[in-house]
Amino acid sequence: xxxxxxxxxxxxSMSTKCSTAELSAHETLATSCPRNExxxxxxxxxxxxxxxxxxxQELLTREFSLYGDFRKPRAKLPMSQRAFSIVxxxxxxxxxxxxxxxxGSDYDSAFLQASILDGQQIRSSEDAFVDQLFAEAPKFGxxxxxxxxxxxxxxxxxxxxxxxxxxxxxxxxxxxxxxxxSGLGVIPRVVANARAIYRGKLSQSEVDHxxxxxxxxYHQALQELLQQAQVRFGQSVLIDCHSMPHEAVASMPxxxxxxxxxVLGDRFGSSASAGVMDRVEAAFVRSGLRVVRNAxxxxxxxxxxxxxxxxRQHAIQVEIDRALYMDEKTVRPNADFDRVKALxxxxxxxxxxxxxxxxxxxxx
Length: 364
Prior knowledge:
Blueprint: E1 45-53, E2 56-64, E3 73-74, E4 84-88, E5 96-100, H1 109-114, H2 130-133, E6 144-147, H3 178-181, E7 190-191, E8 195-196, H4 204-233, E9 236-244, E10 262-265, H5 274-286, E11 291-293, H6 301-306, E12 313-321, E13 326-327, E14 332-333, H7 337-351
Parallel strand pairs: 1-4, 5-6, 5-9, 9-12, 10-11
Antiparallel strand pairs: 1-2, 2-3, 4-6, 7-8, 10-12, 13-14
Helix pairs in contact: 5-7
């Protein structure tokens, strides 16, 4: 790792609507999420480091420690054992980190057999193809981090303490957390439209395995990438990439008679400075996309935990209307996929040029 300054996670304070499956949950209450303390068991995890070199991806599996210490390459792991993938630029020239925590699509057979949903239904809360939409980001000097496991298996945009007593054996009920109560904890009980994933409960050991094996390594990788940007450029800008069902915004007018195509969330100004948010919004608007802020999705655990603008640590959640690029029923790219990908590549290029010396320090 470059430098010695640690990137500090922010203590989460309030949560709002933020993820694509939550519209049906009607979440309205604010909840508290305690700071995550990295335990000894989470200090090592398997990661995949994809490095682009002249269009050829060199895939190496490496040991990943708390601060992203990539040591000797080890044997390539099967997909089901990987916690994340990183596509790194040939040269790091941007303080921006692109991440896709909900585009994982490794539905292993044991998970599918444990579910009462078919292969199509279980994908309804997945941000399918979002990592592909932003795949060109490394060409502009910014890394791209993506999850491997699907959101239905483990939600990386939740605190590891958000455990659902209705799903997990031995978990006591503690206060009111609307996300957990609606089945959208760190181990989801339901997918979109409140469809149950399992017949019964999961064991605590199974839940611990998922969190230790996949949640902690992903967040360690994200922390390392943001720390690298902070040390190298004096600031970090996280673009947390998601997709949303068309129905989530179909009735919201961005322009007369037209719904928004992109929702940007900065938790109402608490996770990114006004300058950074303005630059990100301008990039999407210049591409011709209709953009609104913070409604209905303002950002959840990730933006809440990694955004501290007074320290030049900015985090913005991006939600893209799925109808723009895919058939939501079949979960397949539509005829406009390549066009939308090219459009978002241009947006990523512009966002990647954000420099810390152009922006004032924001008051927190």
